[in-house]
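Support request from a user on the community tier.

User writes: "When I paste my structure tokens into the form, the page sometimes reloads and wipes my input. The last time it worked, I copied everything first. Here is what I submitted, just in case something in the input itself triggers the reload:"
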């Protein structure tokens, strides 16, 4: 039987991070049963209201802050910093993307928070790491992940304008690094009784996603370069436009697929064609073969090719639009979208991107309103109602 409340039940997390990557990791911790407190400044997180849905929820805010409790504190005041220290003293994990300078200014560094609480796990998200010449450089995933991490330059075709990354894609990839490192630190604490300081960088996560290419460069000294679509060594790994202007992706690295591919295209004569019969010949004549395939794919729509390729048991996928992803029955089978419980208005969001079959895991509720749980969190930290009212009056908490 699963543990009541989820695998992180009893774990308390203080989320002192803004925007997407680190808060997203904390949202998944909440899905897993952790009590996550969202710490915001008096003016609120920059993510609030950044994307508007008329008459609907705040989608980005809800996605990355669901299931949390919210408190707003002015860290520029000594009393505000003392309040955060009091809250952190009861937490297992502290997560932030504040720069080193701001952590020191607000007394939220690992040294500050772990001095009297060595069991605390202190995790910092940076753009470029905590050492090196760019350790203090500000970053978003567009800059540190997609650009500096080498992702965009290898996408698209040589000589063309680099494609744009999609909003939050690098952030949400990095959130998985944050989550896994925090869980490992909890396990380490189980073994040693001590917390630790963790650093996760957008750039390093991007490099990990590019590690198949980078490993070749490290081993050989030759850096893989983007190539034109028709320059592929085999159409079995390629992209093709169908007659209805939709695209198909093929991914078959094993040579035995060749005969079935030819039959599916009604080109069985290619099997014995001396230009294409062997893998080496296909590579030498790759551009010619790709152009021939382009002509054939242009004769039928994607649904037709889908049926043919499924019948031939080939490895392929439609290059889908986001609208198609939303209506994809396989996305529904994966339970990729989840209804947010206890929201004022019913809406769906993205579910945590893995399935723990033996654990309780779900979106626990909507994201907090600004400072929604300030009073109850302050009471838990040991403040009296009189002290809390005084802090409200002085604008220390909101």
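"...and here is what came back when it finally went through:"
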């Amino acid at each position: 039987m699963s543990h009541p409340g989820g695998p992180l039940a009893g774990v308390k997390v203080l989320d002192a991070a803004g925007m997407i990557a680190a808060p997203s990791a904390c949202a998944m911790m909440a899905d897993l049963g952790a009590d996550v407190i969202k710490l915001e400044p008096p003016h609120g997180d920059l993510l609030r209201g950044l994307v508007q849905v008329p008459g609907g929820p705040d989608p980005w805010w809800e996605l990355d802050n669901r299931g949390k409790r919210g408190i707003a504190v002015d860290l520029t005041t000594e009393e505000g910093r003392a309040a955060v220290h009091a809250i952190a003293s009861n937490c297992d994990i502290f997560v932030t993307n504040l720069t080193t300078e701001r952590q020191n200014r607000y007394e939220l560094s690992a040294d500050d928070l772990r001095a009297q609480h060595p069991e605390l796990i202190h995790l910092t998200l940076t753009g470029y790491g905590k050492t090196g010449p760019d350790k203090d450089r500000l970053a978003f995933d567009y800059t540190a992940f997609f650009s500096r991490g080498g992702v965009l330059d290898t996408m698209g075709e040589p000589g063309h304008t680099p494609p744009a990354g999609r909003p939050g894609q690098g952030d949400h990839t990095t959130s998985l690094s944050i989550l896994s490192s925090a869980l490992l630190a909890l396990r380490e604490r189980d073994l040693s009784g001590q917390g630790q300081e963790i650093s996760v960088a957008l750039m390093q996560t991007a490099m990990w996603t590019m590690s198949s290419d980078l490993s070749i460069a490290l081993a050989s000294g030759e850096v893989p370069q983007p190539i034109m679509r028709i320059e592929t060594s085999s159409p079995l790994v390629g992209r093709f436009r169908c007659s209805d202007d939709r695209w198909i992706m093929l991914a078959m690295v094993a040579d035995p697929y060749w005969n079935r591919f030819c039959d599916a295209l009604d080109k069985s004569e290619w099997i014995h064609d001396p230009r294409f019969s062997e893998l080496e010949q296909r590579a030498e004549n790759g551009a010619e073969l790709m152009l021939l395939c382009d002509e054939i794919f242009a004769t039928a729509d994607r649904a037709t090719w889908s049926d043919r390729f499924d019948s031939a048991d080939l490895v392929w996928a439609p290059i889908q639009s986001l609208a198609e992803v939303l209506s994809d029955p396989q996305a529904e089978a994966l339970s990729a979208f989840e209804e947010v419980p206890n929201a004022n208005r019913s809406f769906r969001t993205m579910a945590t991107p893995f399935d723990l079959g033996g654990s309780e895991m779900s979106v626990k509720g909507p994201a907090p309103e600004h400072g929604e749980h300030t009073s109850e969190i302050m009471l838990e930290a040991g403040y009296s109602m009189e002290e809390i009212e005084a802090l409200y009056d002085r604008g220390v908490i909101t």
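Agent notes: The reload is a front-end session timeout and is unrelated to the input. The mean pLDDT is 96. The longest strand covers residues 35-40. Escalated to web team.
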